[in-house]
Design a protein that fits this description.
Chain A: It comes from Methylotenera oryzisoli. Chain A: This is Cbb3-type cytochrome oxidase assembly protein CcoS. The complex is a heterodimer of chains A (46) and B (780). With 46 residues, chain A is mostly helical. Chain B has 5 domains: 114 residues, Alpha-Beta Plaits, CATH 3.30.70.100; 224 residues, no CATH class; 102 residues, Calcium-transporting ATPase, cytoplasmic transduction domain A; 155 residues, HAD superfamily/HAD-like (Rossmann fold), CATH 3.40.50.1000; 125 residues, Calcium-transporting ATPase, cytoplasmic domain N. Chain B is built from 27 helices and 27 strands. Classes of the chains: A mainly alpha (46), B alpha+beta (780). At the A-B interface, helix 1 and helix 2 of A face helix 4, helix 6 and helix 7 of B.
Chain lengths: 46, 780
């Protein structure tokens, strides 16, 4: 089970990386308009 | 002829929109942006518009395409969920009034979305709140992962090294939750302490800090007297739940405010003022002065009190008096601010402007009444103080009793008491239930301005209704038709419509509407010499007759048609107790139409079910007595009062208040504003005046009053569930404190208890997301 000594710290680092990604997404406005962008893809674009 | 009549009705007050075309006006909802097209150097402007009439996703596409094909508009983006459009246009090629007209021509309406200076700040705040919630949620999941091995194993099964490592990892990921996500609880608790108040935030903040300190000590020194159990999982989950509740609350609040924004957002009020050279130019109403001469177009509101100096017209003063029948105004008659010009453009000189007008006084009355409204105590905050004192006392007693035996054990027991009593369940009890209810209301088209209004509406015992627009529709209806022998009812209606369609009078429009509703063929009668005598009727000569056989006899060319009062038609009045209008020709009487205000179809049902719930019901109306009595009798209200001024209504309300009654006020017009603002709780119909809506606790977007009994029932159920939740939280604490006190409750059991108690409270509250009366739901 020694691998846990690597995996647990690694999971903490991964969690922090994901949090960084979420921060980026929130402050880029990715969550501001969830409904419309999904529908826009169905519309014809000229 | 038909098309003419209707296009006149459809044409918006385009003239009023031109006030937006000056730069200082459109700057309020626009900002200049850089031109991305390198080839042209023209300046571009980006404007925000609020849209009305959007129904589905396809609508946004229609508006976007329509705007893009309008000259001068560079791009347009419509957000369906926000009901907003962002339009980029070139000031050298088009004007805001043209953009509004283009949207109007597509079948939607648009208003400028005036930018508030704090818009950007509120966006930042919103993002920060979402980010806090995201951090707590994600860290909670990860901490749960680290904690889960201890849930399924017996002590000693995991080697202490690994356990230590897991605790370390949990500690690391709990740090952002403590320092970042829960900072609001700490700052609120500090603020309350400074003001010497105790709110729910104080026990929450204390619980978080103590849980974290004890768990940290256990992480770094597992052999110490703090014990080796960590509570990071409970801590992060607790913070996540609390933040979730707050996020939903903010979201609902924004939704409500957004809808009100839409209702209150209008073109800035403006009027045509006469220049010294005799021409007219549009100016903002705030720039008008006493003595100015202004011209008021049909459909516009009078900007100030004044006297008519040219023309005559009829006006609608129902916003101020509640009287729904138009009033005739001739030369030198006084008109009042806030009433509407119905028939002809007139010029007036202004006598009184601003706050000294009756309109201004009512607005003031509303604002003052709103200020006087007592602040409501929140149920949970009332519980917080005794709870906190009780917990602190128990912890202190535990520590004091054990201090002489063992310092370490004394501190540990005190901490255990504080952890076990972590006020999760108590602090979630009220918000979870109220938010679940509020979201159920929103689905039914009911907006709540203040979430605490649920507490108020649950204990009302008296309801005061306004009439026009609340119990009745705001237009007149044809009730019965009596005809001369040989003339059918539908033929009489068709004949009346032929002449009525040339008038904008409410009764004429009622006739035209009834004709349309009955699907009758268009009259095909052409008229000459149409002449409307105000306050009496309308007459005309037939130019070419109808093709229809049933009408042939009565539409001979050259015959005269008259529609109006008995005197105008030259016949004897048959019945004076009801409002009637007559149709006649040269030979005499043809038909009589009895009119009535259209009562909302479900009004009687709603009143009956409110009476069943043992609520006292009153009707206070500004309208004349016969109309009020008729309405009251038809829907079963026994207590009514007619010809009430806003002051009368307020007096009646204060009298009821002195008797200790809890009054729910349901209203619509501007004259209801003061009473809405000072009632125990109030409901406004969504079609009402924006000012009234701004002071009501609830807004019914679809004006469906049959929702009121359901609303009250649901609010009562909400209060019942809140009490259940609080009772449960108190029982849980009463059991767990003695257990922790005597050291019987093992640490993991305490953590589990905390989690389960919160979950039970949330699950109980979620029962409220379904509206209580789903079996009678026919709209959804």
């Amino acid at each position: 089970m020694d691998i846990l000594f690597v995996l647990i710290p690694l999971s903490v680092i991964m969690a922090l990386v994901v949090l960084g990604g979420l921060w980026w997404a929130i402050y880029r406005g990715q969550f501001e308009d969830i409904e419309d962008e999904g529908k826009r893809i169905l519309e014809d674009d000229d | 002829m038909l098309t003419n009549t209707f296009s006149a009705e459809d044409t918006p007050s385009n003239a009023a929109w031109t006030i937006l075309d000056t730069e200082d006006q459109w700057q309020a909802f626009s900002k200049p942006i850089a031109n991305q097209d390198i080839q042209s150097s023209q300046q571009l402007v980006q404007s925000d518009l609020l849209l009305d009439g959007l129904r589905c996703a396809a609508c946004s596409g229609i508006i976007e395409q329509g705007l893009k094909s309008t000259p001068g508009i560079v791009s347009a983006r419509v957000s369906m969920s926000k009901k907003r459009a962002v339009v980029v246009w070139s000031p050298s090629a088009t004007l805001p009034s043209k953009i509004l007209t283009a949207i109007h021509d597509l079948g939607y309406s648009a208003f400028p979305a005036t930018q508030h200076e704090d818009d950007l700040a509120s966006l930042q705040k919103q993002r920060a709140a979402f980010w806090r919630w995201m951090v707590s949620g994600f860290c909670m999941m990860q901490v749960m992962m680290y904690a889960s091995p201890t849930y399924f194993t017996t002590p000693g099964e995991i080697s202490s090294d690994i356990l230590h490592l897991l605790n370390w990892a949990s500690w690391l990921l709990s740090l952002p939750v403590l320092l970042f996500s829960s900072s609001a609880f700490f700052s609120n608790a500090l603020r309350d302490l400074k003001q010497k108040q105790i709110s729910m935030d104080l026990p929450v903040a204390l619980g978080i800090i103590i849980t974290f300190i004890v768990s940290s000590a256990a992480t770094f020194d597992p052999s110490g007297w703090w014990g080796s159990t960590v509570y990071f999982d409970s801590l992060t989950m607790f913070v996540f739940f609390l933040l979730s509740a707050r996020l939903v609350e903010v979201k609902l609040h924004r939704k409500t405010l957004g809808a009100l924004d839409n209702l209150a957002s209008r073109i800035p009020e403006n009027t045509e003022r006469q220049n010294p050279d005799g021409t007219f130019a549009r100016v903002l109403n705030t720039k008008l002065k006493v003595g100015d001469i202004v011209r008021v177009q049909i459909g516009e509101a009078f900007p100030a009190d004044g006297k008519i100096i040219s023309g005559n017209t009829s006006v609608d003063e129902s916003l101020l008096t509640g009287e729904s029948t138009p009033i005739q105004k001739n030369l030198n008659d006084d008109v009042i601010a806030g009433s509407y010009n119905l028939r002809q453009p007139v010029c007036i000189t202004l006598n009184t402007i601003g706050e000294s007008t009756k309109y201004g006084q009512i607005v003031n009355l509303i604002n003052n009444a709103a200020v006087e409204k007592p602040r409501l105590s929140k149920l949970a905050d009332r519980v917080a103080r005794p709870f906190l004192i009780f917990v602190m006392l128990s912890a202190a007693i535990a520590a004091a009793l054990l201090w002489n035996i063992d310092h370490g054990r004394a501190l540990m027991t005190a901490a255990a008491v504080l952890i076990v009593t972590c006020p999760c369940a108590l602090s979630l009890a009220t918000p979870a239930a109220m938010l679940a209810s509020a979201s159920a209301f929103v689905k039914r088209g009911i907006l709540i301005k203040r979430i605490q209004a649920i507490e108020n509406i649950a204990d009302v015992d008296t309801i005061i209704f306004d009439k026009t627009g609340t119990l009745t529709e705001d237009h007149i209806q044809i009730k019965t038709i009596v005809t001369k022998a040989g003339l059918t009812e539908s033929a009489a209606l068709t004949l009346a419509t032929a002449i009525a369609q040339h008038s904008m009078h409410p009764i004429s429009r009622a006739l035209v509407n009834a004709h349309k509703a009955n699907d009758l063929p268009s009259p095909e009668i052409e008229l000459n010499d149409i002449e409307e005598t105000s306050g009496a009727g309308i007459s005309a000569t037939i130019k070419s007759g109808a093709a229809d056989v049933s009408l042939l006899e009565h539409s001979a060319v050259g015959n005269e048609l008259k529609l109006g009062s008995a005197i105008f038609c030259g016949i004897a009045e048959t019945n004076t107790s009801t409002q009637q209008v007559y149709l006649a020709n040269k030979q005499g009487w043809l038909a009589t139409f009895t009119l009535q205000e259209a009562i909302k179809h479900n009004a009687a049902l709603a009143i009956a079910s409110l009476k069943e719930a043992k609520l006292a019901i009153e009707l206070l109306s500004g309208d004349r007595s016969s109309a009020v009595e008729n309405t009251a009798n038809q829907i079963g209200i026994t207590q009514f009062q007619s010809a009430c001024s806003p002051e009368d209504k307020l007096l009646r309300l204060q009298a009821l208040k002195r008797e200790g009654k809890k009054v729910l006020m349901v209203g619509d017009g501007l004259n209801d504003g003061p009473i809405l603002a000072s009632a125990h709780v109030s409901i406004a119909m969504g079609k009402g005046v924006p000012l009234t809506l701004a002071h009501a606790d609830y807004v019914f977007l679809n004006g469906d009053i049959s929702q009121i009994p359901h609303l009250i029932r649901h609010a009562k159920q909400t209060m019942r569930i809140i009490k259940e939740n609080i009772a449960w939280a108190i029982v849980y604490n009463l059991i767990s404190i003695p257990l922790a006190f005597f050291g019987i409750l093992s640490a993991w059991l305490a953590g589990l208890g905390m989690a389960v108690s919160s979950l039970i409270v949330v699950a109980n509250a979620l029962r409220l997301t379904k509206f209580a009366s789903s079996e009678t739901d026919t709209h959804s």
